[in-house]
Design brief:
Its main location: membrane. Part of the tripartite ATP-independent periplasmic (TRAP) transport system. It is found in: Cell inner membrane. It is a multi-pass membrane protein. The protein has 423 residues and is mainly α. It has one domain. The protein contains 22 helices and no strands. α2 runs parallel beside α15, α4 runs antiparallel to α15 and α9 crosses α19. The longest helix is centred in the middle third of the chain and has 34 residues.
Length: 423
C-alpha cells in the first residue's frame, strides 16, 4: 500500500484536485499490484458509491441553504444576533458566534458558513475595533458548528456509510454544537473585557421584535426537520425536500426571492453537489482498494500491537482524524477511512451514534486546525490578514473545540441523551 500513498501524495503536491488524485492513485495501484483486471470493476464501484437514495438529501439541503442565503436570510440572521447580544462589550464577536450557530441550522457546511458570514462579519468586527486576525479566527473556528448542528451534510455521509440512524446523528449533534457556541461566547466575553473592546448602543425593543419576526421562520427550519423525522412524518430525504419547499415559501412571502435568485441558487447547488458526489464516487475506488488489500485489518492489528487499552486507541484515533482533517475534506476522509473506523468502533465498544459524532467533530475541527486548515485560509483571504496571524488567534478557540470533543468522547450522555429520549 506504500505505492498508493506515495502516488496520492505526489498527485496532491502537483496540484491535481483531490477527487482525481484519489481515483487515479487507486486505479494506478491496482495496475501496479498486478490486479489490472480489477480495473474493469471500477465504473461499477463508482456508480454504486453514489447510487443511494438517501444521498439525494445532499443537493436538497444544499439547495435549501442556497435559497435562504440568496433570499437575504444571512443578513437577517446577523441582524437578529445583533439585536440579541450586539450591545455587549465587543458585541460583534458574540454576534458572529450566534450567527454561526443559527446559520449552521440552515447550511450544514463549514466552508459555506465561513464564506457567507465572513464577508459580512469580519469587516463589522474590524470596524468595532477588534483585530482583523482575531475576527477572522473567530469566523473560521465558529464555522465548525456548520457540520455539527443539524442538518449536517457530513452527518448524512457518515450515516450512509456506517448504517447509523441519520435522524439520531442529527439529534446527537445538538449538544456538542451548543457546547462549542457556549465555550466560544465565554472566551469572546473574556477577550472583550481584557482588551477593552467598545460597547455599541442597545437596539430598541421595537427593533429587536422586528428582527425576531423577520428571522424566526428561518430559525425554526432545523426544528421542523428534527420533529418531522422523529415523529415519522417524513424520512431524512423527504425532510430535505420539505426544507427546499419551506425555503421557497418564506423567500417568496418576504419577497426576497426572485426567479433570477432561484436560478442562481440552483446553479450554485448543482456545482457543489456535483463536486461532493464526484469525490464520493472517486473515493469509492480507494475504499475498494483498501478492502481488497485488507487495510482495515492491518491497521487494527498495528494498533493492537501498540496498545489494547480502549481509551488509548480512542486517543490515537482522534489524533489521526484531526491530522487528516487538516489536509482533506471531511467527506473524503469518511469514505476513505470508514472500513477502518468501523473496525475501531467494534474494538472500543462505543455506541455507533456517539462514535459518529466524535468522528465528525474530529474531521471538522481539522478544517480549522493549523497548518493547512481550509477554514483558516478562507477567513484569512476575506480579512486580508496573513494566515500566520489568524492561526495565532485561532489556537485558544481550537482548544475550546478540543475540550468539547474530549467531553463527548468521554461522556456518552452528552450525545446520546437527546436521541435516546426522543427515539
Amino acid at each position: 500500500m506504500g505505492a498508493f500513498f506515495i502516488l496520492f501524495a505526489g498527485f496532491l503536491a502537483s496540484g491535481i484536485p483531490i477527487a482525481l488524485a484519489l481515483g487515479i492513485a487507486g486505479t494506478a495501484y491496482l495496475y501496479l499490484s498486478g490486479n489490472g483486471m480489477m480495473m474493469l470493476m471500477l465504473p461499477q464501484r463508482m456508480i454504486a458509491g453514489i447510487d443511494q437514495f438517501v444521498l439525494l438529501t445532499i443537493p436538497l439541503f444544499l439547495l435549501a441553504g442556497a435559497l435562504m442565503n440568496v433570499g437575504g436570510v444571512t443578513e437577517r440572521i446577523v441582524t437578529f444576533a445583533r439585536a440579541m447580544v450586539g450591545h455587549r462589550r465587543g458585541g460583534m464577536s458574540s454576534v458572529s458566534i450566534l450567527s454561526s450557530g443559527f446559520f449552521a441550522g440552515i447550511s450544514g457546511s463549514a466552508t459555506a458558513e465561513a464564506s457567507a458570514l465572513g464577508a459580512i462579519l469580519i469587516p463589522s468586527m474590524s470596524k468595532q475595533g477588534m483585530p482583523p486576525a482575531y475576527a477572522a479566527a473567530l469566523i473560521a473556528v465558529s464555522s465548525v458548528m456548520g457540520p455539527i448542528i443539524p442538518p449536517s451534510i457530513t452527518m448524512i455521509i457518515y450515516g450512509v456509510l456506517s448504517g447509523a440512524s441519520i435522524g439520531q446523528l442529527f439529534l446527537a449533534g445538538v449538544v456538542p454544537g451548543i457546547g462549542i457556541a457556549v465555550g466560544l461566547l465565554i472566551y469572546a466575553t473574556w477577550r472583550a473585557k481584557r482588551d477593552g473592546f467598545p460597547v455599541t448602543p442597545r437596539m430598541g425593543a421595537r427593533e429587536r421584535l422586528a428582527a425576531t419576526k423577520r428571522t424566526l421562520p428561518a430559525l425554526i427550519l432545523p426544528l421542523i426537520i428534527l420533529v418531522g423525522i422523529k415523529g415519522g412524518i417524513f424520512t431524512p430525504t423527504e425532510a430535505a425536500a420539505v426544507a427546499v419547499g419551506y425555503a421557497l415559501i418564506i423567500g417568496f412571502v418576504y419577497r426576497d426571492l426572485t426567479l433570477q435568485r432561484v436560478w442562481d441558487a440552483l446553479i450554485a447547488t448543482a456545482l457543489v453537489s456535483a463536486s461532493i458526489l464526484f469525490i464520493t464516487s472517486m473515493a469509492s475506488i480507494v475504499s475498494f482498494v483498501f478492502t481488497l488489500e485488507q487495510v482495515p485489518q492491518l491497521i487494527a492489528d498495528l494498533m493492537l500491537s501498540l496498545t489494547d487499552n480502549p481509551w488509548m486507541i480512542l486517543l490515537l484515533l482522534n489524533i489521526f482524524l484531526l491530522i487528516l482533517g487538516m489536509f482533506l475534506e471531511p467527506i473524503s476522509i469518511l469514505i476513505l477511512t470508514m472500513p477502518i473506523l468501523l473496525k475501531f468502533q467494534a474494538m472500543i465498544g462505543m455506541d455507533s451514534v456517539q462514535f459518529g459524532t466524535v468522528v465528525v467533530l474530529n474531521v471538522v475541527i481539522g478544517m480549522a486546525t493549523p497548518p493547512v486548515g481550509i477554514l483558516l485560509f478562507i477567513a484569512s483571504a476575506i480579512s486580508g490578514e496573513p494566515v500566520t496571524r489568524v492561526i495565532r488567534e485561532a489556537l485558544p478557540l481550537i482548544g475550546i473545540c478540543l475540550a468539547v470533543l474530549t467531553l463527548i468522547a468521554l461522556v456518552p450522555q452528552m450525545t446520546l441523551f437527546i436521541p435516546r429520549f426522543l427515539f
